[in-house]
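Q: Give me a protein?
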Amino acid sequence: MEDLYLPLEKAKKLAVRAGREILSVYNSGQLFKEVEYKKDHSPLTRADKLSDQVIVEGLQRSFPNWAILSEEEKDNMERLQNDYCFVVDPLDGTKEFLKRNGQFTVNIALAYQHRSVMGVIYVPVTGELYYAAKGMGSFLQNAEGNVRQLHVSDIIDLGRVRLVMSSSHGCSEMEELIEKYQFKNIVRIGSSLKGCLVAKGDAEIYYRHNPTMEWDTAAMQCIAEEAGAIFRQMDDSEMLYNRENSLNDKGFYIINRAENRVR
């Protein structure tokens, strides 16, 4: 595997640039104009397209021999022959974007031989930048440029654990789990921010039963794992990337400690 420093630094810069493009739409009054709906009924905005253009063109210029899988690009299956594949969600949490609650992110990951080895998540509204690379640790840079390393919490008392879940994608399995274990500390938040909360020790359990896509999880996985979290599919198998079928149909979980694997 090649040195990850250069792709990490490039991804960080592109995520911030893409975030500026997103905010230009978010703060403009044009927010609800030009909203399209894809085949799966998910919204597509001008901000998604602008962000995608910044990221994809930037990655192609800097790493022309590496593949790219982006939510907003036509899928090129030649990527399956490439050991390196960037996995990109130009605007994760478009529903949150349209709700104007600030809970949306830019996600850029790099998969090497099907495993997430680099992740960058930028939060345009707050200016927070989460990033990690395999073996290098997980970090958070705030809007002022201050950086701190991330570590999961050590809480394993189910009476104290904080459970994070989607604010837009509820499911019966999650409600049953909450009732079974009587979880009281529940945080509902959008996009990949849920995994970031576990990574920085502000939550201990994130279960996602509903299907997601590779670009929803790849960056978040590396950031969480490098902070000490456990990330697995719901059947406890490893999550792989740059697959022929990009649907994460088994669900997944992120926990701070093995003791918090509840069923």
Summary: The mean pLDDT is 94.
